Amino acid sequence: MTTYTLYDYRPSGNGYKIRLLLTQLGIPYTYVEKNIIQGETRTPAFLAINPNGRIPVLELEPGLYLSESNAILLYLSENTPFLPTDRLERAYVNQWLFFEQYSHEPYIATSRFLLTYKPDEQSQALIAQKRQPGYAALGVMEQRLSEHPFLVGDRYTIADIALYAYTHVADEGGFDLSGFPGILTWIDRVQTQPNHLRITETHGGKPRSGD
Amino acid sequence: MTTYTLYDYRPSGNGYKIRLLLTQLGIPYTYVEKNIIQGETRTPAFLAINPNGRIPVLELEPGLYLSESNAILLYLSENTPFLPTDRLERAYVNQWLFFEQYSHEPYIATSRFLLTYKPDEQSQALIAQKRQPGYAALGVMEQRLSEHPFLVGDRYTIADIALYAYTHVADEGGFDLSGFPGILTWIDRVQTQPNHLRITETHGGKPRSGD
Asked: Which among A8, A16, A166, A198 is least surrounded, fewest beta carbons within 10 Å?
């Protein structure tokens, strides 16, 4: 079997989702860092890998690339305990994955990005606009997590991985989680899953020589 | 088998995806219109159906609701010709579905929404910001469609349905498709698939009495 190569940027929550799942699946991989701040995902060489110019990208075999973090999660988790086999439970995993990319990431992850890399006046205005929809997304999660241990069924799945990635660092985007006790308990629960990995860590990922 | 109920708003491209697939699958359904402009998806009754306050929502059986248009597409297409069985092809379907929600819909669909319902000065500034990323998304599609008949493999799948929904009305958001010959040919190809349905049509969907 070919070793996967992950093109990623260490602070990225989207990339972290893949690193976390690969680690929990015990799958070794080659790690290639692309600094998105320095434009390394917009070079002709990288656009040949992903025309959309974004990390993470997983090279499945030489020359065969899959992008979109949640599509990669679905690919890797198939036939593993991280993706339910029940049709309805899988539907709800998908529901959370699309919720994450449409209603959560653009507000919570983007606020963290702006605060970290572009903390200027223009960003402050943008971050202010993201507050209400960001908190609304956290409210949707809280409604579920105040009554259930995990997002789908009663088990840790890729839905938890996808939502955990940016939720647990929401404070870095200026979001206060103290009003969301269900989310806070769930964060603890996710962090105590076997083989947990912290964001920016790359356990199991070996840098490719020359990169 | 219970008849599905679709909660939807007729001009919505996200709702149209589901109407189109249900029609092409020959599955009858009950249709309940919720006017998003009039706040009908933010009432307590609707939030009990979808805490995220968005259409479309498919009621799978009484009291059991699935939201997120692309999650609904995946649910309905399982074990049908609209979703490939090959693992890699399914991964690429997912990749396009997440691309649509993250890199396409927020620019192309939202521009159409603003131009249609809020054509004021503030919207014009917002629409201007959405031009570049919207055209970038169309460029990613063009790269694929200038060389292939469909987005995944050589067959019409839910990836085409998901991307077609807002792409074919991109002009209503002020996007000019004339520079995208691959997309234009693909639009024709999608429109000639058996049992095609035009946006805002609800063939096969029967209004629920009382709604």
From this structure: A198
- Residues from chain A contacting residue B97 (CB–CB below 8 Å): 71, 98
Whether the CB of A43 is below 8 Å from some CB of chain B: the reply is no
What does pTM read for this prediction?
0.97
Task: Please tell me the distance from the alpha carbon of residue B142 to that of residue A79, in angstroms, as a whole number.
Answer: 33
Given a contact cutoff of 8 angstroms between Cβ atoms, the answer to whether B196 and B20 are in contact is yes
**If we measure between CA atoms, which residue out of B101, B60, B22 comes closest to residue A91?**
B60
Which of A91, A98, A137 shows the shortest C-beta gap to B101?
A98
Chain B contact for A95 (CB, 8 A cutoff)? yes
Q: Is A42 helix (H, G, I), strand (E, B) or coil?
A: coil
What value of ipTM does the predicted structure carry?
0.96
CATH superfamily, region A4-80+196-207: Glutaredoxin (3.40.30.10)
Digit-by-digit pLDDT tens for chain B (211 residues) are 679 999 999 999 999 999 999 999 999 999 999 999 999 999 999 999 999 999 999 999 999 999 999 999 999 999 999 999 999 999 999 999 999 999 999 999 999 999 999 989 999 999 999 999 999 999 999 999 999 999 999 999 999 999 999 999 999 999 999 999 999 999 999 999 999 999 988 887 888 764 4
Q: Could you tell me the fold of the domain covering A87-191?
A: Glutathione S-transferase Yfyf (Class Pi); Chain A, domain 2 (1.20.1050)
Tell me the angle at which helices B158-167 and B121-145 cross, rounded to the nearest 10 degrees: 140
